Amino acid sequence: MSTEVEVATTGIKVELPKAYDDIKDLIRIDRLPHIWCPGCGLGILLKLLARAIKNSGIPIEKHVIVTGIGCTGRIGGYLRLDAYHVTHGRAIPFAVGLKMANPELEVTVVGGDGDILAIGGNHFIHAARRNDDINVIIVNNFIYGMTGGQYSPTTPKGAKTTTSPYGHFENPFNVPLLAYAAGASYVARWSVLHQNELYQSLLEMFRVKGFAVIEVLSPCIIYTDRNAMGDAVDFMKVIKERSTIDHNANLADIDIDFSMKKIVLGNFVKRERPVSYG
Amino acid sequence: MPTVAELYKKDLDKLLKPGIHFLDGNTATAEGAVTAGCRFYAGYPITPSNEIAEYMSYRLPQVGGKFIQMEDEIASIAAVLGASAAGVKSMTATSGPGFSLMQENIGLGSMLEIPAVIVDVMRAGPSTGIPTLLGQGDILQAKYGSHGDYEIVAYLPANPQEAFDFTIKAFNTAEKYRVVAVVLSDQLVGHMYGKVRVPEFDEIEIVERPKPTVPPDQYLPYDSKYLVPPMAIAGTGYRVNNESLTHTDKGYPTTDKDASFKLVMRLVRKIRENEKEIAEWEEYLLDDAEYVIVSYGSTSGSVRRAIKVLRTQGYRVGLLRPKTAWPFPGWVVENLASRGVQKFITVEVNMGKMYHVVREFSRGVPVEHIPYAPGYIPDPDYVMSNVKKVIEG
User: Number of folded domains in chain B?
Assistant: First the structure.
């Protein structure tokens, strides 16, 4: 049975593909179409996250999504779950409060590179240090998309953005290394192209006791356009051709630079480390 | 309304016992919070509020609560809102610089309508000011510090007894109206020791947030048919989108002008339409007063002494002491102005904050401010000589 959906903005009725039948009760179908650009990777993540939540073995009503600001911050609003769309950068401490107040909740923060690593960077490292028992999905598209394409903490040196018209001067974060060094129990990096691996990683994240971080590389046409990298599909091709999977990679050696010659993916870290607040 | 005796039956032996205690204001605040049912505290060290965090770190585990020292004040208020969203009464305490950092998330608490209590033990400013000394400069910030339109409630304790009592009131008001409630204490109140009478547990009324009475499929998280909609707790199956963006009754982001206006109207109406129920004040020797001194918090003690002496010298002065800064009992000022008061004189440790609020309601009656901001409350002599100057012109 396929599901007929009325598109909120136009009133036109469309059929949801059968492939989404398993997650249709987890998506706020009355909010479609979503706001993301054609070519954006967030739709793929939304689907995989909904599927992973459905199959997590944890009751649906115990899942809570907390998001901050930015394109990625909109993901919670499309999931038919308890979701909190909060202030820029503050999703992690809000999530920490939820989890401490009710440890039965499975709390997942989803945020972009700007939200989690710039304005929210301090909260990220301290939650990792405490090994707070929450999940953090960082959708890294290398740029601030929603505000029009300014550089972010993961924008590679040399990249052109609306605030680095002569090429970016700064060094980007190596996200898995940062998460590991700060104390996360689980650290992985995947892309929205690696759907099976990412899906498995999301399931693993729900099983992990402690601070679990998945960096998800995701195309953004705001980024690719400005840097003459073609469209989102071209970006996906680069990821497909140049990425390697190495679960045992030396994390100090997996920076992603502007050339994207080397993209290392994997489930890098899974370690037993005490959780500060059970 | 249920009482502590009914709600916290199994914890009664762990609460501060009814009767007389000798406490500092900060500890009284913390004990008031515990009595009110606070079971989560997140904070960041800052003078002169530290005793509250230290005491809560010791006290909350005894009553099954949790304490965390966060990485900054922004994280602290965010964690407080998160914990309250999960159904646990929560608070933080801070002082000026930390209170400034919390402003954005006060807006978040107002928008998501999450009950929370912030204790601001005011110190001298601006900037880092004098951490160990007193100021009363955060009065306007408490109401206007975050952007956009919203309402908060703020209490002004003047001694340890009120620090205890008003913290309980702050939790009750926060829960009843689903707002952020602030206890605007100050350094002197925080560090002052005094008698605190804890009422019998069946005399302390406790308010809890309204709960949904309909099943999840009929529940609207921001149902505009209520002034204060029932609040679904995270993890209870209501599966709600709690939206910081301007939202519809359903919690979906919107730019629709009717929905936007309706939401903002409701956020302010829930306090403005209940201001007479919430606001509290004390009148001292006002019946025949020609000159009304408006003062609050620790400063009001010095003013009270000055008034006693001025009365013996024939000056018809009295005190209006707001116990809530917000909502401000403006109608009391209006009534006094209509009755023919000669002048209002504001005495507070700042360069004029509540002064502006009194002017708003003084109906043309002159309002004069006695500026004082050296990190201390003015002594009674200073108040007397300056009040005389104002009266004699």
Answer: 2
